[in-house]
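Q: Can someone sanity-check these two? First one:
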Amino acid sequence: MKHIHVFNKWRGMSVKKTTNILLPLALSALMVGSTVATVPAYAQIEAKESQTVAPQQEISMKLEQTGSIYDVRKRLKVKIGPSNRQPTGIYKNMNDVIEIYVDPSTDQSVMPQYIISPIVLTNYSEGNKPGITLRKGRNVITDGTGIIHLINESEPTQNPVTVTISGGQELPSFILGKHTDDDWEMIKRSHPNAPGFELVSKHVIITGGSKSISLVQSPNELMRAHDKAIEEQYRVAGLDSSNVIHQPAPMKHHMRETSESGYWMYAFFNHTAYASDAMDRILNSDTFQRNGWGPWHEVGHTNQMDVMDWSGLGEVTNNIYSLSVQRYFGNNSRLEEDQIYDKVFDYLGQENNDFNKIDDVFVKLAMFWQLDLAYGNNFYPSLHKAYRELTDQPGSDAVKQQRFIRLASQTANRNLTPFFEKWGLMVTEETKQLLASLPDLDKKIWEYRDNMDDVALAPPTGLQATDIQSNRVTFQWNPSEGDIIGYDIYRNGSWRARVFSTEFTDTNVEADTEYRYTVKSIDVKGNESEDSNEIVVKTKQESSSSYEQWNRDKIYNKGDRVQYEGFDYEAKYWTQGNTPGSSDNWKLLSEVILPWNSNKSYEGGDKVTYNGVVYMAKWWTKGEIPDKSSVWEQQ
């Protein structure tokens, strides 16, 4: 038997539904990290004589090389992980004949696979269907009805595979960075009878049915919000480029609509799913950012580390990520809103407590969250890294608990024995001896809560605009003193974003329009300062540049000039798909100083901004941080 994490809309938590899996192959598919002997399944190579391939659509795409989803789960030490699916935007009707041509010139030894599944799931297993392997050359598919996704679990090679899909029905598809909100409206109008749609961003795929498409009003803002939520969860999980074992998986999170009865939301392998009545939680930008606990919670399950959890924490530790996203979007803590701290302090006031006998998952959550409140937003990233760097794996609950007490204490650089004993976790004599060399705990951190009466935070000062264009506004400010974790940006009185530097660029603006901005400081407990000084800016009119807009799919030769995001660029040499401003292939012609980009090379004399300060390169450089390297000179 296997458990699925299902979200209960009344209690705001997942409950476990036990499902008997009868087929051995299906059971094997549920075993994360297990070795499964499988018989290769291949796409049909030739159509039957009575069938012909009459393609309605044809698309070509170079697939991402993601590596194995099982290897990703093992490396990140997570239970579920992201999805290995890649979107195509193609739907196969019952009588459609689909041809997928796999470019034979690829040097991949692992061939891509395809999956066809209902656009609105009817069973959780449909979101985790095994792929059917494609062969080099022509593959003809006659069976199945549903949306087509691809899998490419090859490790990186010199020549990633390109596939061309012919046939089927094109779905309304929005790709962040490629399409605008206006494009989306036109795409919807041109596909009035489509059975569903897909939205795609850097970290997320959303697949929904035709009845939900009307909920998507501003996909640009929506998908940016989804990416920010994923990136905040990745930050909490300590996923970054510091070491290969800490790198985020090169895969997306697949959020799908489901009509299966008994489910409001759930998390399972290769997808999270949402009932049709719950789709507004992931399709309305404001709802997702203000009332998105359900989606934050389910995606949190995909980041849970098995080595960190012991029995009874399945619906607890995933909400460390939920609370972090809630704070990131500027919301009050759920532990405050639902008066959980009243229950917490009642429990802590008792004698002979036993943490493992607490029934309320939110009371349990408070213990983990107090560590974040006490030791800042770098506590859990560091703790996750410590767990991933373990060479031995704790097995029993007792061993896992002592391991958590030890690693948490080492991460905080405090002997946390009094804290855990107050919460009713037994600290063994062996663990106490290991922690004896750490500094003593000097604060009653079990009394911490999100909304504490602290000294008023100093608001940011010196807010000023540094770059105003027709399609963006960049401004900076002086850092505030104190235990500050970030800054909230307000535009025209409404919350706009949370950032962790002293500079922000607003790209969601209209040309020739006036905007008013203020900034507030945020500390580790989520407290917010008063407003900074207000600035009023007016964006420029639309650019009168004579150069064409940059096109991702077009080939440019040396000397070709384009406009991108209001700036003029000239190609240094042949290029295709390399974004101006982020690639060495382009030279900036416009007289403007852009923010430093770690992926871009700079020559002597080039100027950049970093954390609100202008720097000039002394000689050629790439990846060297302006305020940390002698190659940069502050201007």
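And here is the second, same format, sequence then tokens:
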Amino acid sequence: MLHDDYILFRLYVPLVLTVFLAIMAYVHRKQLFRYIYFGNIFCFVIAVVCYVLVMNHPAGQPYSTPWMAAVPFLWLFGIFGGYFLFLVSAFAFLVEMAQRKMLARVLLGIGILFLVLLLIKALFILFGAIWVMRGVY
């Protein structure tokens, strides 16, 4: 059906994350967070549908209707919004579950440690780039 080099993070990962979000919405007790989960599911569904539409459209051919020109932008907002909201949703879910379960506390600690290590690596890359640019001029 679709033969794309980037299909993993454009189709399969959003589908798997949609299933995780549905499970989180079923398990979660607070109604407010369920709205965030369903909004996130909506973003991923929009992104997957737009991706399939764009991949099935022949390259170089004009769009059949004017609204098809907006599909790549919808995909862009859907995929980035979906990934960002998933990070927020997973963090909110773990914080709420950490009040009752020890495993959630451990996972939350590992997640915070991972984010700190990611920040340190990003700063290392930034300072390395600044150091390299220093010798150019």
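A (reply): Looked at the second one. The chain is about 80% helix and 0% strand. Residues 4-135 form one domain.
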